[in-house]
């Protein structure tokens, strides 16, 4: 998976010159610039993204995504950070990453200076949905790439999603329960024929839904809750009696959600 990393202007800023002026630099300075570029590449440019904001990452082969590093990530180079994988809803599909910022984790992560997670928020192509097998494989590949390249606490990886992303959360959790320390599906459900492995019972799950949801009826979540309860799983269910389809805003704005997530790791 190759990222489109643009270095034009990076060296210029390091040398405090305008990019256009670079054409006038003498040959020996050009050698210095080349070495700086090589140095940046060898150190891993992915670790030098801005903190505290969702930046757009476009890739040649795979899913484009928003990427968030918590404040103080660079300062604490030896620390491993919890990670949240966020799956958006049907309306945010396409090729415009600005859409992914409308709801959920990308929106809430920039409202505070203390959001303590690495956040990965991919965008589903317009001709797919998250439960597609191809999307499931792309999500796993993306997650594994981030784990390999960043200071991720592998025992504290969480997944959440809303609406179509809620369905995607159930699907990916069923596909790879070993990856996640906890899961939060919101106003979603299980696709027909979803195979629920027995090992999913070891993953804490907190389900949310609106009682007046006409887009995805609450029964979709409740069927999944019952299925997990039947295998002795660790699951809790919050129904907002007066909420319509948007049961995600109050959920993601609730600090208790993040405290609950951080209370779970694969170690405990």
From TrEMBL:
Pfam families: DLH
Matching InterPro entries: AB_hydrolase_fold (IPR029058), Dienelactn_hydro (IPR002925), Plant_Biomass_Hydrol_Est (IPR050955)
UniProt GO MF annotations: hydrolase activity
Matching SUPFAM superfamilies: alpha/beta-Hydrolases
Segments forming domain Dienelactone hydrolase: 134-245
Sorted UniProt keywords: Signal
Protein name per Swiss-Prot or TrEMBL: Dienelactone hydrolase domain-containing protein
Organism in which the protein naturally occurs: marine metagenome
């Amino acid at each position: 998976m190759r990222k489109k990393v643009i270095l034009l202007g990076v060296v210029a800023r390091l040398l405090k010159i305008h990019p256009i002026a670079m054409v006038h630099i003498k040959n020996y300075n050009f050698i210095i610039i080349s070495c700086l570029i090589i140095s940046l590449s060898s150190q891993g440019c992915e670790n030098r993204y801005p903190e505290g904001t969702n930046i757009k990452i476009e890739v040649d082969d795979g899913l484009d995504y928003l990427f968030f590093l918590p404040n103080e990530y660079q300062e604490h180079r030896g620390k491993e950070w919890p990670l949240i994988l966020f799956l958006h809803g049907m309306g945010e599909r396409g090729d415009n990453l600005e859409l992914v910022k409308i709801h959920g984790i990308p929106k809430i992560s920039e409202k505070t200076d203390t959001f303590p997670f690495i956040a990965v928020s991919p965008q589903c192509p317009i001709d797919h949905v998250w439960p597609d097998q191809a999307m499931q494989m792309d999500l796993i590949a993306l997650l594994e790439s981030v784990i390999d390249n960043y200071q991720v606490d592998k025992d504290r990886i969480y997944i959440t999603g809303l609406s179509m992303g809620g369905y995607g959360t159930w699907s990916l959790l069923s596909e790879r329960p070993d990856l996640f320390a906890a899961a939060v599906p919101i106003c979603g459900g299980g696709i027909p024929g979803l195979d629920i492995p027995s090992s999913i019972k070891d993953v804490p799950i907190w389900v949310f839904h609106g009682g007046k949801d006409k887009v995805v009826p609450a029964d979709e979540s409740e069927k999944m809750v019952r299925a997990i309860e039947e295998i002795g799983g660790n699951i809790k269910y919050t129904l907002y009696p007066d909420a319509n389809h948007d049961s995600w805003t109050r959920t993601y704005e609730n600090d208790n959600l993040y405290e609950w997530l951080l209370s779970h790791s694969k170690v405990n």
